[in-house]
């Protein structure tokens, strides 16, 4: 009777070599016109936005140049412009728009976005949504 030999699982060579950079914007507070209720349509409210971007590293040197990385200042500026555009009914809609903005940079493979409304309930710090979107 032949004995079977069980080989240990090994990740594919490409997966083992892959490295990722996480670019993030944490706790960005913006004022947005957001919500479906009458009181929310009358006045803007504060929202907190958190963004995490996964950017594969290709092993090349960054040469200490901003052009070689995802610029978080451009992301923050873009998010501020989105929140200033006009009324949005849903936090989900704002989160999708932020993710789309982030994925415009072709280096970004995954965008995780959390949008929280901070002033909805007196007994809750925040309510909101978190989404994850992938390029391609």
Give structural notes.
It is globular, with a radius of gyration of 20 Å. The protein has a single domain (18-134), classed as GTP cyclohydrolase I, C-terminal domain/NADPH-dependent 7-cyano-7-deazaguanine reductase, N-terminal domain (GTP Cyclohydrolase I, domain 2, 2-Layer Sandwich). It contains 4 helices and 4 strands; from the N terminus they run αβαβααββ. The protein is an alpha+beta fold. A 4-stranded antiparallel β-sheet has the order 1-2-3-4.
Key structural traits:
single chain, 136 residues, alpha+beta, GTP Cyclohydrolase I, domain 2, four-stranded antiparallel sheet, 4 strands, globular
Summarize the structure.
With 136 residues, this protein is an alpha+beta fold. 26% of the residues lie in helices and 32% in strands.
Question: In terms of topology, how is this protein built?
Answer:
Blueprint: H1 13-17, E1 19-32, H2 38-42, E2 45-57, H3 72-84, H4 91-103, E3 110-117, E4 127-134
Antiparallel strand pairs: 1-2, 2-3, 3-4
Helix pairs in contact: 3-4
